[in-house]
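Sequence, please.
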């Protein structure tokens, strides 16, 4: 049911993010060694590093792919206070044997932030080629490429203050609702001031501005490391996963619009999971938004799913170092779960990539790729 592959990445420092492309056939990794590596899945099922280059002058926190409709485009953000856009170019070699060669070109550098840029995400395809960044100074910035054939030109469309600080963001992928963003913070002082680590923003079609909907109160009381909206295949509500000291699943139910044209939301908290009393660093959904994957300091990738009674339960644990997994408690009841042990690794896994056809967890110097079959 589960298979794993260890990929020696040759990164010289800690890997902070792993990202699949839209089809799950390409993968990008970024690291504190200031580099990004691109991997292609060969016909033999092996991952091959096809590009590696220095991207920033500081640790690279995140890397993300655009939708393939806009070409092979990557965005990165870094501690050096910048975000960069990279595009893959294909050209034909001039030798006697005609071969296609690829290389990645920096199209632009976004330098508006005065502090570390902590997260970066492309907007859903139906919104066009837009990009959101959030930084330690509590600024959410949304950029757009007016001409998708010229990625050297990006316009700053919106500059939103979400102070006192921000660590992660996620776009709502729903096409049937107004565009929405969630921003999380990992600053304990900020959370105490706001009584929440999560802020929701919605695009108002009337004013053509992003406006704050609300703080999500009374649910997450610890620093937020990652947030992820679930894909929406037609639900009338939104599902949001939050990585903090625990894993949280939040349901946002749209109500009527208020007098300013903003959506009123009814907030529910159907599930909260203890990740073996360890910090949770990444959460990601499968393509239908029915299975949630999380990874944390305990070195495990855990899978969660709701039954027909809307009770969320663990459906599996993948552990890289082969040690036993203790009995865990999940909301709303205790249960034992299947454990899938893997060969020993050099370090515990603590980061996870987009959960499309599989999930990838990273360690210092290695990337563990977990491939899931349709059996889950």
């Amino acid at each position: 049911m589960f298979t794993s592959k260890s990929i020696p990445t040759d990164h010289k420092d800690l890997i902070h993010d792993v990202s699949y492309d839209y089809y799950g056939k390409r993968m990008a990794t970024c690291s504190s060694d200031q580099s990004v590596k691109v991997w292609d899945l060969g016909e033999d099922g092996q991952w091959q590093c096809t590009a590696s280059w220095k991207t920033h002058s500081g640790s690279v926190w995140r890397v993300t792919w655009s939708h393939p409709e806009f070409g092979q485009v990557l965005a990165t953000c870094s501690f050096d206070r910048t975000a960069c856009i990279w595009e893959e170019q294909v050209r034909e070699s001039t030798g006697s044997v005609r071969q296609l060669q690829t290389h990645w070109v920096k199209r632009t550098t976004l330098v508006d932030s005065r502090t570390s840029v902590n997260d970066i995400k492309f907007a859903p395809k139906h919104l066009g080629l837009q990009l959101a960044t959030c930084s330690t100074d509590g600024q959410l910035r949304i950029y757009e490429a007016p001409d998708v054939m010229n990625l050297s030109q990006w316009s700053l469309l919106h500059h939103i203050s979400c102070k006192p600080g921000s660590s992660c963001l996620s776009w709502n992928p729903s096409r049937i609702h107004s565009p929405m963003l969630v921003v999380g913070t990992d600053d304990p002082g900020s959370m105490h001031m706001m009584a929440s680590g999560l802020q929701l923003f919605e695009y108002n079609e009337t004013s053509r501005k992003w406006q704050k909907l609300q703080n999500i109160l009374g649910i997450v009381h610890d620093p937020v490391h990652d947030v992820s909206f679930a894909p929406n295949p037609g639900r009338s509500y939104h599902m949001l996963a939050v990585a903090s000291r625990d894993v949280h699943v939040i349901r946002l139910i749209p109500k009527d619009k208020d007098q300013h044209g903003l959506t009123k939301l009814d907030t529910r908290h159907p599930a909260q999971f203890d990740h073996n009393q360890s910090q949770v660093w990444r959460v990601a959904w499968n393509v239908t938004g029915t299975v949630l994957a999380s990874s944390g300091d305990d070195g495990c990738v855990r899978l969660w799913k709701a039954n027909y009674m809307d009770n969320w339960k663990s459906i599996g644990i993948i552990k890289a170092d082969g040690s036993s997994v203790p009995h865990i408690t999940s909301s709303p009841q205790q249960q034992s779960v299947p454990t899938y042990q893997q060969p020993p690794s050099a370090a515990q896994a603590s980061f996870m990539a987009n959960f499309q056809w599989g999930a990838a967890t990273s360690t210092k110097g290695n990337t563990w790729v977990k491939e899931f079959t349709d059996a889950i």
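Residues 327-358, 372-376 have pLDDT under 50 and may be disordered.
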